[in-house]
Amino acid sequence: MKTSTELIEQLGLDKAITLDHIPNIDLYMDQIIQLFENTYGETKRNDTDKVMTKTMINNYAKAKVFFPIKNKKYSKEHLILISMIYHLKGALSINDIKTTLEGINEKTVNKDIDLEAFYNSYLQLSEKNVESFKAEVNFQASEVKKEVANLEVEDQDYLEKVMLISTLVSTSNLYRKLAEKLIDELESKEV
What we know:
Keywords: Coiled coil. The protein is mainly α. 67% of the residues lie in helices and 0% in strands. The protein contains seven helices and no strands. The longest helix has 37 residues, at 115-151.
């Protein structure tokens, strides 16, 4: 089995759409898709996967996950929100994402938030999360190796992979459940 460090390096966790990547002019949908493809294309699991599609963006617009566009063009604020949606969609439903970003959308439209500063803070925290993630995965891999060694069975490499997959999914579920609980609190405050 490849080491956890080798596997993590293949994930492209350093990839992000920063404010420097987002032009100060409004973009058409095809330009947004190209920006996401150029930034995250290497991180796809399979070559046939799409990073972002017109259908995805249209579905986000129909669900009102971000405020309406003007003249078929997306502003810098739209791109920031679409980038956040891109990251949230891996763990949350479209309704949970809408609930999460509803207040941000409203504050953006009312100019009650510096969305660029908020996004930069989000990106900084994400970078710190990557470092914590690397340390945690290395710790989990070490613990898995010890547990499987205690089983004294053949094909330990296979069992280590299955155990690490199970452990990572279990941890992921814990984070998702806590995020959902926080979303529920957001919803209860809106009522």
